[in-house]
Amino acid sequence: MSAGPSVAAPAPARVHWPSLTVAVVLMAVGSVHPLLLAGADGQASHSLAMAWFWAMSAGLVRGVGFIPRQLAIRWLLGGPAVALALVLAAWLRWGG
Question: Domain residues for 63?
Fold first, then answer.
């Protein structure tokens, strides 16, 4: 007789090097050259910073191997979110 429902063991976390590399580069560049996050007028661009930090956060979460169970959080912090946030940040910096 079993004590309860069997629960499958979670898959071991694996480092996702492309995402982790992007996150570390974004941290380094943002620390060394913070004016990159400013708009053309020299003022802080909050939308650019939000996209930049989203890419960095998603890269760190996915890079260390954590995959959230909840679908919405997985979408916001997954591998494709890194690319989407980087494209958004580039568009806000140079295209918009």
Answer: 34-95
Residue 38: phi, psi to the nearest 5? -95, 155
Phi, psi of 44, deg, nearest 5? -60, 130
CA distance 51 to 44: 13
pLDDT digits (tens, 9 = 90+) for 16-63: 999 999 999 999 999 999 998 887 788 888 999 999 999 999 999 999
- Any domain includes 49: yes
DSSP 66: -
Q: Is residue 13 part of a domain?
A: no
How many structural domains is the chain composed of? 1
* C-alpha R_g of the chain: 17
C-alpha 42: how far from chain center: 25
Residue 10 lies in a domain: no
- Please state whether the predicted TM-score (pTM) of the whole model is above 0.90: no
Residue 29 one-letter amino acid: V
More confident residue, 2 or 19: 19
